[in-house]
Amino acid sequence: MYATEILSDERSLVLRLIEGDxxxxxxxxxxxxxxxxYFAMRFLKSREYAEDIFQDAFAVVWQGRRFINPDASFSAYxxxxxxxxxxxxxxxxxxxxxxxxxxxxxxxxxxxxTKDEIIANDLRQFISRALxxxxxxxxxxxxxxRERQMSHREIAEVLGISVNTVQESISISLRTLRTYxxxxxxxxxxxxxxxxxxxx
Length: 200
Hints:
The protein is an all-alpha fold.
């Protein structure tokens, strides 16, 4: 089915999406993929970043599907999500080096290099224990995303699963990790999750 054919019946697809229809989600995903990735690339100059933003946008769509207004413009809704993520990504890119430095300085509050290394190793071991709280498949998907820097689409293709399954798995994994970290860590859960997601 071509994108123009899909969009001619977009409201019907949106109504099905709201009800949790994965086929409708996939049709909308395919219909908007190229145009939204191109839109993001105009600002980010990187297809990898653009694809990640597109995938994140549709993760938001799926997770918030019950709150979508079927009578409003679905296209405008999507472009608003993507625009906001582009702005966030641009800020992240400009501040990434500074952010890494700040996170490490908070997590490793020592000046001695030997102590720094010991504490950093302890943090890595703690993160490793946190990852053991995930199921084997959740852990595999999470590590492919965070450690190997694979896009959701690449993970789905390698594992033979849907992009939506990848997105749902990563979302569940982050919630599981946060719960474990909040119960067991002397460092804030947000801080350690940032370390995990930045692959420090």
